[in-house]
Design goal:
Largest sheet: none
Number of helices: 7
Helix content: over 70%
């Protein structure tokens, strides 16, 4: 487990249980805009509640995590990775919604912006500051933090904040 991509990969599955992927299938079950907004709101609330619970749990149980993955120290590697995945989780709903709405231009532009921001900071941290794996992970975190407000605003405009147990 020396590859810096392993930790975010593991946590990206755990932190949301890929619950937002249900949008691909279930959005077509809803016929009117309010039902779709309610469905997206439920998904958003779930992602927020569950991923925040996982984030806090990881920080609280950092010693256990460190004992399971002895070759990777919690600080800074796990913490940066967990935070990156946490903030990226809020971008998954808008991305999937863009795909479902067949707004490929917006989807691709958003992906390119994230790619450019991430790689810009990775190059700065790894090449200029010689931060190695930490710099690589920090580049992803900064990208996630910079795009987080956009994803929140985009999502809030398209949801009804309500938990629907259906």
């Amino acid at each position: 487990l020396k590859d810096p991509d392993i930790v975010p990969g593991l946590f990206s599955i755990i932190i949301t249980l890929n619950f937002e992927r249900s949008i691909f299938r279930l959005i077509y079950d809803y016929k009117n805009k309010n039902d779709i907004k309610s469905f997206l709101g439920t998904i958003t609330l779930w992602v927020f509640i569950f991923s925040t619970f996982i984030l806090i749990s990881c920080i609280f149980f950092q010693n256990l995590i460190s004992s399971l993955f002895k070759s990777i120290s919690f600080y800074p590697y796990f913490l940066i990775s967990i935070l990156t995945v946490y903030f990226n989780a809020f971008g998954n709903i808008p991305r999937i919604y863009l795909q479902v709405q067949q707004k490929s231009k917006h989807f691709v532009i958003l992906g390119l912006i994230q790619f450019l921001i991430t790689n810009f900071f990775i190059i700065i941290f790894v090449v200029a500051f010689e931060m190695k794996a930490t710099g690589y992970l920090l580049g992803g975190l900064i990208s996630s933090l910079l795009l987080f407000p956009y994803f929140i605003v985009y999502t809030l405009k398209r949801i009804i904040i309500k938990f629907n147990f259906k």
